[in-house]
Write a structure and sequence with these properties.
By secondary structure, the chain is of the alpha/beta class. The protein is built from 35 helices and 24 strands. The structure holds ligand 26W. This is Alpha-1,4 glucan phosphorylase.
């Protein structure tokens, strides 16, 4: 493919492009254009440059009859696109220059783009990183998702409590997508199944149209681009004219409203699954549209459906698209006349399933009644898959299976429908084998494989951290962005004081910028000389933000009791949303904000301790906070965090981790070196062991005076002066049902935070450790992860 530099426009040409879009696409005169107009014109000018590589990639895939990967995900947590696309195309600096000449500021315009939040957290952001890496490594692929009208809710704090409001990223024009009204499929629900000529005939009695919107995703240096195809629900019958003519105006629009409900809003739960009919409909809507589209594309150039697995790999991002198996089998049998067993084998050879969680409450189980009602034909197929599997594996234990106790277990369905099942970190994959699917693993040895998560270095280092990126390029030259292993080239320089000073200088500059941002957004003034201690992620009990805030209170108490000791100033930074129905998580948010209000106004501790919790954590806020972090909090109860990816972003940006042996922390610590990682806490096995003592929490609390003091202060209402009993629930749970072992790990955590302080005092040595983190994190590039999927699961070669 052509060298990207050859395609890069000159300054004049790019300026002309922007002005042409301003005039002819926006219909605005430069003299009267608003920031919005300029942003649109700039975005269209950049998008124009993506189209070339995009067409070239698509043509190559067709011409070379390449196998394609289809990544099915209910979530894509994309964030802003403008700067990321500009950087990948090598246009970032040129665009800034041209805009400056036009009296505009690139960063201001880019900062006004809405943050596309079509996802909840880790799983959705991983899908976005993987889309970018598939484009970077030249893996021909399509992402399939839902074009939610409303992404993840916006978060505000009122009196310290989370309040949700609707997100509306589509209120203004989305310049990145192309509407494809010609790519539309009918999606059916409910109805009857009959038999005709020996084939099942499903006649749905509800239908909607899935209509495609394509967003090109361009990889590093524009060498390849793929498509993210998002489906929007439209009515089959737009408007009931008869009702309208009768004067029933609201009812006339009813079918439209109902149909559009399916792609209206992203479900904000990422931990507790809820057996809601609309959610099941969303899952089938995505899956059916994707499978129909895949078969349509295949049949344009092929006739033999038995060869499908040679040309098509379908990846299910968790079980949310697990109806892909039944839907593919349905189309192969009912529409194309293939026998059931053969159809099953074809589907299985195409499908892969990624598991992202072991939490029992997050495992999807749909009632057979609901599935039978909404998807009667699929319910039959699911039963047949289950009995086929039972027949093929007669030694399958009676308690193993897809349909049990009037529920369809989506994990088992996905496992049995797929030829590969993968976990997302080494530890997690072992737990998937041993704890989640022990019997299926025995029946199918080798099916479960590990693909440790990764993050895209383009967004999470090059774009988010220009200061450090500049230093890296100065030190080891260009090319590390798509060969992240080359960061090891920094290691020899870590022994050079000049390099360490430059590294510390980059971190310091990021912290100054973040301190200013914190002052602007929260009104709290923090010192950039303090240790920036960051815990950013969804709120969940297993992630133990509670452990962090309890230790913060202990530290505050300690400083007050020992005013004459030399303390290391710290800024505790929290970010994250709680699912709207997750009462305990919301209480923890409230507590953090209440504690912050007390500590931040305590003249006795002053700059020695601040707690900030900016509302509405999202991808853009992550890009801002992560480069400024000194310490990364990865403190989940061991065995609960499947992988984590924020842990990777923080360490890559030169934060040291304080963490448990959970998820990818284990591998991060192995790579960066135990001496550059603050480890504490019970292991996954010890956690299981400790739970056998029903009084584990009481024992742990009684053995730890600082923790007792903290719980006492909270119980007395020190942080809720107007309402003494506000946190009695939290305190009570700590004593009696501390399922996530906050108490048992408190002592070790508190002690290790002391180690962090001692290390931070040795500023130069801290910088050495931080730089070694950056230098040794190359493994965690999502390019490496994607190459693993291509080789172990998809059987696809790079087209580059
Ligand atoms: C049906 C409700 C629901 C929705 C989403 C249940 C569970 C989920 C996701 C599986 C939760 C999730 O995002 N898991 C995270 O996936 C990341 C990417 O692999 C991992 O890094 C995180 O450890 C894991 O919590």
């Amino acid at each position: 493919m052509k060298d990207i530099s050859a395609q890069r426009p000159g300054k004049e040409a790019f300026r002309a492009d922007i002005l042409r879009h301003l005039t002819y696409t926006l219909g605005k005169d430069a003299g009267h254009a608003s920031d919005y107009d300029w942003r649109m014109a700039l975005s269209f000018a950049i998008r124009d440059r993506i189209v070339g590589p995009w067409f070239a990639s698509t043509r190559r895939t067709w011409a070379e009859n390449r196998k394609r990967v289809y990544y099915l995900s209910m979530e894509f947590l994309i964030g802003r696109i403008l700067e990321d696309a500009a950087i990948n195309l090598g246009l970032r600096d040129l665009a800034a220059e041209v805009l400056a000449d036009l009296g505009q500021d690139f960063a201001t315009l880019a900062g006004e783009e809405p943050d596309a939040a079509l996802g909840n957290g880790g799983l959705g952001r991983l899908a976005a990183c993987y889309m970018e890496s598939m484009a970077t490594v030249g893996c021909p692929s399509y992402g399939y998702g839902i074009r939610y009208e409303h992404g993840l809710f916006r978060q505000r704090f009122e009196g310290g409590q989370q309040v949700e409001t609707a997100e509306d990223w589509l209120k203004t024009r989305n310049p990145w997508e192309f509407e494809r009204p010609e790519s539309a499929y009918t999606i059916g629900f409910k109805g009857e199944v009959a038999e005709k000529d020996g084939r099942a005939l499903w006649t749905p009695d509800e239908t909607v149209i899935a209509s495609a919107y394509d967003t090109p995703v361009v990889g590093w240096q524009g060498r390849w681009a793929n498509t993210l195809r998002l489906w929007s629900a439209k009515p089959t019958q737009a408007f009931d004219l008869e009702r309208f003519n009768r004067g029933d105006y609201a009812a006339a629009a009813e079918p439209e409203t109902l149909a559009r409900t399916i792609s209206r809003v992203l479900y904000p739960e990422d931990t507790t699954y809820q057996g809601k009919e609309l959610r099941l409909k969303q899952e089938f809507f995505l899956t059916s549209a994707a499978i129909q589209d895949i078969l349509r594309r295949y049949l344009e150039t092929h006739t033999d459906l038995t060869a499908l697995p040679t040309h098509v790999a379908i990846q299910m991002n968790d079980t949310h698209p697990a109806l892909a198996g039944p839907e593919l089998i349905r189309l192969l049998t009912d529409a194309h006349g293939i026998g059931f067993e053969e159809a099953f084998d074809i589907a299985q050879a195409c499908l892969g399933y990624t598991n992202h969680t072991l939490l029992p409450e997050a495992l999807e189980r749909w009632s057979t009644w609901l599935v039978g009602n909404i998807l009667p034909r699929h319910m039959q197929i699911i039963e047949r898959i289950d009995s086929l599997h039972r027949r093929r594996f007669p030694n399958r234990p009676h308690y193993v299976g897809i349909v049990k106790h009037h529920e369809v277990r989506m994990g088992e369905l996905a496992f049995i429908s797929a030829h590969r099942v993968n976990g997302v970190s080494a530890l997690h994959t072992e737990l998937v084998k041993e704890r989640l699917f022990p019997e299926l693993n025995k029946l199918h040895p080798g099916r479960i494989v590990n693909e440790t998560n990764g993050v895209t270095p383009r967004r999470w280092l090059r774009m988010a951290n220009p200061a450090l990126s500049g230093l890296i390029t100065e030190t080891i030259g260009e090319g590390w962005e798509d060969h992240l292993d080359r960061l090891t080239g920094l290691e020899p320089h870590v022994e050079d004081k000049g390099f360490r000073d430059a590294f510390a200088g980059a971190k310091r500059a990021n912290k100054v910028a973040t301190a200013n941002w914190i002052a602007r957004t929260t009104g709290i003034s923090v010192s950039p000389d303090a240790l920036f201690d960051v815990q950013v992620k969804r709120l969940h009990e297993y992630k133990r933000q509670l452990l962090n805030i309890l230790q913060t209170v202990a530290q505050w108490h300690f400083i007050r009791e020992n005013p004459n000791l030399p303390h290391v100033p710290r800024v505790k930074i929290f970010g994250g949303k709680a699912a709207p129905g997750y009462v305990v998580a919301k209480e923890i948010i409230h507590l953090i904000n209440d504690v912050a209000a007390v500590i931040n106004n305590d003249p006795r501790t002053g700059d020695l301790l601040k707690v900030v919790y900016p509302a509405n954590y999202n991808v853009s806020m992550a890009e801002h906070l992560i480069p400024a972090a000194d310490l990364s909090e990865q403190i989940s109860t061991a065995g609960k965090e499947a992988s984590g990816t924020g842990n990777m972003k923080l360490s890559l940006n030169g934060a040291l981790t304080i963490g448990t042996l959970d998820g990818a922390n284990v591998e991060i610590r192995e790579k960066v070196g135990a001496e550059n990682f603050f480890l504490f806490g019970l292991t996954a096995d010890e956690v299981e062991e400790r739970r056998k003592d029903v009084e584990h929490a009481r024992h742990a609390i009684l053995a730890n005076q600082p923790l007792q003091d903290v719980l006492q202060m909270i119980a007395e209402g020190r942080f809720s002066p107007g309402q003494r009993d506000r946190y009695h629930g939290i305190v009570d749970r700590m004593w009696h049902h501390d399922y996530f072992l906050v108490a048992s790990d408190f002592g070790a955590y508190h002690a290790e935070q002391g180690e962090v302080d001692r290390s931070y005092r040795e500023a130069d040595d801290w910088t050495r450790k931080a730089a070694l983190n950056t230098a040794r994190m190359g493994f965690f590039s999502s390019d490496r992860a994607i190459r693993g999927y291509m080789e172990d699961i998809w059987g696809v070669d790079s087209a580059l």
